[in-house]
Amino acid sequence: MYNLNITPSIGQTDALRHININSIASWFEAGRTPIFKIFNPTLDLTYKKWNLNIIHSEFNYLEHIYFGHDVEIRSYIVKIGKTSITVYQEAWQNNKLCANGNIILVYYDFIRENSKIIPEEIRLKLKEQLMDIEEIELKNKKEMKNK
Amino acid sequence: MYNLNITPSIGQTDALRHININSIASWFEAGRTPIFKIFNPTLDLTYKKWNLNIIHSEFNYLEHIYFGHDVEIRSYIVKIGKTSITVYQEAWQNNKLCANGNIILVYYDFIRENSKIIPEEIRLKLKEQLMDIEEIELKNKKEMKNK
Amino acid sequence: MYNLNITPSIGQTDALRHININSIASWFEAGRTPIFKIFNPTLDLTYKKWNLNIIHSEFNYLEHIYFGHDVEIRSYIVKIGKTSITVYQEAWQNNKLCANGNIILVYYDFIRENSKIIPEEIRLKLKEQLMDIEEIELKNKKEMKNK
Amino acid sequence: MYNLNITPSIGQTDALRHININSIASWFEAGRTPIFKIFNPTLDLTYKKWNLNIIHSEFNYLEHIYFGHDVEIRSYIVKIGKTSITVYQEAWQNNKLCANGNIILVYYDFIRENSKIIPEEIRLKLKEQLMDIEEIELKNKKEMKNK
Questions:
Q1: pTM
Q2: Which of A26, A29, A57 sits opposite B59 (nearest CB)?
Q3: Residue A4 CB burial class (10 angstroms; 0-12, 13-18, ≥19)
């Protein structure tokens, strides 16, 4: 699991006085940086070096998130395919799971514009982080019970 | 169908020199405004008047979107439930379907914090706009063939 | 003068139920695109072709801007220096001047990382658009009186 | 001085492969939260409780900011007026001062829509934090020399 702490800003709220859903998406994006590093240790953002292309994202908005309290973004690798991975992410505030979602990232050649097979050495590093979604849900249930 | 024309700005690109996925989400949000108006004609953003709460969104990123060319956002009501609707949205650039997605909006009381049954008069107006996803896909195929 | 019409989205408001100041800055950025085109007609965003670097921006927030009404962004070239230009911009909503500001753009070589003298052919095109700030203010006064 | 650590996300870069200037503005906004707390300890975002209105902001972009390295936002109260304060802010990355700027916040009644005199008890708390701009610049020079 990868953790990122976020201090919400007023601009990330909207007129309904909660955090706007687009801000959550951008926090999830920031939370994926350590996973990008597995694929591209220098995080060099050139077409030669960058190698991940997002093809799908989905989000569930479970509880409103508020300004004035920090938010924890948790990111898990939950699936490793031949050419893609699925990252499951959560936003927690005040011990509540407020939003979650899945993002599919394809291992990608930005010059040739096609997907590539994930090489073995990257795959091994990803496997160290692989976690089962049921396992995560169980862990969450325990955590929420204890609070 | 509801149309919105967008002129991308540089800040909406990212270092991969395409439009960042979060910008697409915010364009889809702007594209839903005419649907918000069906529920709340004055668009008054108070807890008393605002009545839509997003519980789910998902996006498919089919083609990169570029700075320098306008983008058309198309929004369709594709499902009307008891307490919620599904809005299907597309982003088109240079006659190509570049992204699409579904958003689920719940008819919601922001003071009591619970969902409500969509009243008949709103339901009638929504039905006028209801369109079948297969119908939309067929229309898209024709359109892309002609270009 | 260059005009851009903006349809605000809910995500561009903040909890104070006005448009957040960062959204205004991003609209001004979108409004500068026709000026970028004078310097770089294809708008090609590579280090070889892109040639403008922002070194300063300032904004005055005169009136709150609201969701639900379109906003007009007006952009003027008000100063042409040896290596830089000043762009003055305004945001209008419901016939009111709601925000204005100045941005200084330096003609810049992104490979060598230094400023360059604006070439004569670009300077001529810029001069066609040059407008005096007092002239703009006079025009605004007339316009607001007539509404 | 108030400090905020930021981990940039890819969506905060733009096609020129630096952090986009609008992202810097939004980081500065997040950095002002401890100052908002002096005026409004609960950070309650209602018209009754919120009491700060931005009337001016300006930014100098001194060095490009890059993805992949954390950014430190420093916020100082540099001027306390009768009805307003000036906050000076800086963005530091890799021991370099990359951007700075001033924001003017007016003590404001959002219901009556007018400015108010800052009460004595708030003024005292602000004074504890007041710092001279020359003092800050001297501190910065020393810091950059030592690195």
A1: 0.95
A2: A57
A3: buried
pLDDT one-digit tens code per residue, A92-123? 999 999 999 999 999 999 999 999 999 999 99
- Dihedral angle sign, alpha carbons of residues A115, B8, B22, B92: negative
Nearest-by-Cβ selection for A67 from D10, D13, D45: D45
Q: Is the dihedral of CA D53, C10, A63, B58 positive or negative?
A: negative
Contact of C94 with C69, CB cutoff 8 Å: yes
Query: Are the Cβ atoms of C30 and B45 closer than 8 angstroms?
Result: no
Structure tokens at D143: 């810091």
What's the CA gap between B50 and B28, in Å, rounded? 19
Tokens of C1: 């003068």
Residue C145: what pLDDT?
86
Predicted-complex ipTM score: 0.95
Residues of B in Cβ contact (< 8 Å) with C9: 26-27, 29-30, 33
Cβ neighbourhood burial of B29 (10 Å; 0-12, 13-18, 19+): buried
The DSSP code for C17 is S
Task: Tell me how far apart the alpha carbons of residues C47 and B107 are, in angstroms, rounded to a whole number.
Answer: 48
Q: Which residue on chain B is closest to A56 by alpha carbon? A: B60
Structure tokens at D119: 């009460």
Write the Ramachandran bin of D68: left for phi over 0, alpha for psi from -120 to 50, otherwise beta: left
Phi, psi of C6 (to 5 degrees): -120, 130
- Over its length of 147 residues, how does chain B's per-residue pLDDT go in tens digits? 999 999 999 999 999 999 999 999 999 999 999 999 999 999 999 999 999 999 999 999 999 999 999 999 999 999 999 999 999 999 999 999 999 999 999 999 999 999 999 999 999 999 999 999 999 999 999 998 887
Q: In the prediction, which pLDDT does C9 show?
A: 95
List all chains that touch chain A, counting a touch as 3 or more CB pairs closer than 8 Å: B, C, D
Q: What letter represents residue D14's amino acid?
A: D
Q: Distance of alpha carbon D113 from its chain centroid, rounded? A: 24
Is the pLDDT at A147 greater than 80? The verdict is: no
